[in-house]
Amino acid sequence: MIFEEIKKFYQSYDGKKCVIGYSFRGREIFAFHIGQPTGRQFISTYAIHAREYITASLALKHIKAGVKKGGGWIIPLVNPDGAVISQSMRPLWKANARGVDLNCNFDADWGSGRLNTRERGGENCIGDSPFSEVETVALKEFTLKVRPYVTFSFHTKGEEIYWEYGGMGDRRGAEILASATGYKPKIIYGSAGGYKDWCIKKLRIPSYTVECGSDSLTHPITDVRKLKKCFYALKIFTEKYV
Fold it and tell me: pLDDT of 23-39, one tens digit each?
């Protein structure tokens, strides 16, 4: 199980680390710091969607690669309960253990997405209110504490980079990520309530969603080598984004 792998890595990690909160079923949400402890910091999140748990393995690649400039926090498994559900019972499950899609639960035009629903299930449920889920509250509070200059959300799949929300965003950073991965920057419509959306709209900072892996792959992806184009995305971004 990916949760146990991340937990074991956390226990052995010698760098700065913390638990930012707990899932609905009481599992830790781990965070790892890389790079310089002072100066501008980033936050990078992974596996907010359960079936995309392979991105937690990508997070470990990013931790091991490190960064040469600045520093930041990597949160490999935002949705640990959902990952367990996907790995053990329902492979295509995206939501948390309460049947809420965490990436629809942030306070950024909450509930206005094209596919949004209030019906609990494996995907697209917005929850009872913005930040109704303990996982999104944990990520919100940690983000407000760190006050990052930029955030990243690694998802699967499609080889695209989303950088804009509500007419705001920084395309230059998307172009740096594009040069690092070969992926295409893209503006999407009909989506709301995501972590990226909230960071851009409410915190007014650049934020990027990176859809890793070819669209020809099938969920859930189980081989992190399929995401190899993203292995050095953070390292390259922090070297070039000033």
Answer: 999 999 999 999 999 99
**Gyration radius of the chain over CA positions:** 16
Q: Give the burial class of 17: count Cβ atoms within 10 A of its Cβ; 0-12 exposed, 13-18 middle, 19 or more buried.
A: middle
Q: CB of 6 within 8 A of CB of 56? A: yes
How far apart CA 193 and CA 21 sit, in angstroms, is 20
pLDDT, one tens digit per residue, over 172-228 is: 999 999 999 999 999 999 999 999 999 999 999 999 999 999 999 999 999 999 999
Amino acid occupying residue 30: F
Pairing of strands 41-46, 71-75: parallel
> What value, to the nearest 5°, has the Cα angle with vertex 147 and ends 42 and 242?
45
- Closest C-alpha among 181, 180, 186, 196 to residue 161: 186
**Which residue from 25, 46, 4, 45 is spatially nearest to 98, judged by alpha carbons?**
25
Alpha helices in 40-170 (DSSP H): 54-65, 80-88, 134-146
Q: Would you give the DSSP letter of residue 208?
A: E
For the chain, counts of helices (H) and of strands (E): 7, 10
Residue 237 tokens, joined: 């971004």
With beta carbons less than 8 A apart as the criterion, state whether 75 and 234 touch.
no
